[in-house]
UniProtKB/TrEMBL annotation:
GO molecular-function term, one example from the UniProt record: pyridoxal phosphate binding
UniProt-listed PROSITE patterns: UPF0001
Role: Pyridoxal 5'-phosphate (PLP)-binding protein, which is involved in PLP homeostasis.
SUPFAM superfamilies the UniProt entry points to: PLP-binding barrel
Keyword Acyltransferase: no
Pfam families the record matches: Ala_racemase_N (PF01168)
Source species, domain of life: Bacteria
Name of the protein this chain belongs to: Pyridoxal phosphate homeostasis protein
InterPro entries: Ala_racemase_N, PLP-binding_barrel, PyrdxlP_homeostasis
Length: 222
């Protein structure tokens, strides 16, 4: 795990340098779905602090097991309306908000004793029928509506483009979405949850502030 962690960090630093961006401007999110709490603890001891989960019940169990660790928890999976309360109560970030109803419920259910919940809007940038997310054309209206809600803080967008092996083609959807957000003229939207291990460099070149990496960090589950 040490070598994998160092390799991913090196990749991020290299891509950040090529993009002429400040060192440290890209946050690594360790995607720990299906991985045991012991793996998360091991990576935490190496210095990783941000962990992302896809499945709510699995995440809540790990949070109990790792309560002694100062982890920043991100949720990146699909959201059902009846699961918003625990999301609002137990996470620091939610990346997969794709409609106003979900944002409203998270806002209403975020406890007063916690800081506002950081959220990203998931955009279906490749317009795939199998994926969740708002269309890029409807993004401005959703941003305006969600920004007005209390107890949450709209930070930016998340995207999972259609898989592509060609580097130039990997960059295109991220560039399109980044530019669309810039055109909204909302400086508070400073977070771009772009890229995984297969397109990490392309995502960073096009403005990613957070990259989501799982198997390349933890290894394949036996």
């Amino acid at each position: 795990m040490v070598e994998r962690f160092q390799h991913i960090q090196s990749q991020i630093r290299h891509a950040t340098g090529i993009a002429s961006r400040p060192r440290g401007s890209v946050q690594l999110l360790a995607v720990s779905k299906t991985k045991p709490a012991s793996d998360i603890a091991a990576l935490y001891r190496l210095g990783q602090r941000h962990f992302a989960e896809n499945y709510l019940q699995e995440a809540l169990l790990k949070q109990q097991q790792l309560a002694a660790f100062n982890i920043t928890w991100h949720f990146i999976g699909p959201i059902q309306s009846n699961k918003t309360k625990p999301l609002a109560s137990h996470f620091d970030w939610v990346h997969s908000v794709d409609r106003l109803k979900i944002a409203q419920r998270l806002s209403e259910q975020r406890p007063d004793y916690l800081p506002p919940l950081n959220i990203c809007l998931q955009v279906n940038i490749s317009e795939e029928s199998s994926k969740s997310g708002v269309s890029i054309g409807k993004l401005p209206d959703l941003v305006a509506a969600v920004s007005a809600l209390p107890r949450i803080r709209l930070r930016g967008v998340m995207a999972i483009p259609e898989p592509e092996s060609n580097y130039a083609k990997q960059r295109q959807p991220y560039r399109q979405l980044y530019l669309a957000v810039q055109q909204l003229n909302r400086p508070e939207l400073d977070s771009f949850s772009f890229g995984m291990s297969g397109d990490l460099k392309a995502a960073i070149m096009e403005g990613a502030s957070m990259v989501r990496v799982g198997t390349a960090l933890f290894g394949k589950r036996l």
